[in-house]
Amino acid sequence: MRHNPKYAVTDEAVVRTLIAENPWGTIVSQRDGALVASHYPILVEAGEPLTIVSHVGRPDEKVHALGGHEVLLIVAGPHGYISPSWYAGDTPTAPTWNFSVAHCYGVPELLDLDENKAVLARLVAHFEDRVDDPAYLQPEVADRLAPGTVGFRLRITRFVCKVKMSQDQDEETQRSVLTHLRGDGPYGNPALAADMERALRAS
Asked: Can you give the pLDDT at residue 112?
């Protein structure tokens, strides 16, 4: 990620919220000189330090050599194009992109079969809790699925987080950007507008 201290965030709570609200991560590792990436749902564990749990499908654990070295976990929130036509004033302005993203690092700890089953059940419950007629993971289904997956716990030892939400613009421009993001135009993005409002309140 390009170094830009203007948008850097060091508050772990922001990263926790980012992961909790956007529980889809990209795991990147280097194996035999080649980069490997996989995408999986993730959950934040309660307590300290900042830790996530997830699983990979076999043979991804071997492709990544999980447990043997540090991996990079990338989590991104809502993001979108910001048109210069939305800016207040007559000064020519370049287009930009608003976003929030965290690059998290750590060495995964592989879980045993029973703990992997528990994580699978937690993942399903986390997402099923939101539907009208939840279908939770039954033990017999977990018994069938778990051997084809490898659960892991990732204690995040360091992270780089950027939240770029037009903080450097004047209030009139910020209001205009929010209005357009909430609108039904080609770049309408209500989720990004909500994140932008939160970031501006915190700045």
From this structure: 97
Distance CA 98, CA 4 (A): 14
Supply the angle between the helices 190-202 and 171-182 in degrees, to the nearest 10: 150
Q: Which helix (H) or strand (E) holds 71?
A: strand 71-76
**Phi, psi (rounded to 5 degrees) for 200:** -70, -35
pTM to 2 decimal places: 0.93
What are the tokens at 65? Answer: 């050599």
Q: Cα separation of 9 and 161, whole Å?
A: 5
Tokens of 155: 């204690």
The parts of the chain modelled with pLDDT lower than 50 are: none
With contact defined as beta carbons under 8 Å apart, do 181 and 189 qualify? yes
Q: How far apart are CA 155 and CA 177, in angstroms?
A: 37
Predicted pLDDT of residue 5:
81
pLDDT recorded at residue 39? 96
Asked if 56 and 27 count as a contact pair (C-beta separation under 8 A), the reply is yes
50 close to 156: Cβ distance less than 8 angstroms: yes
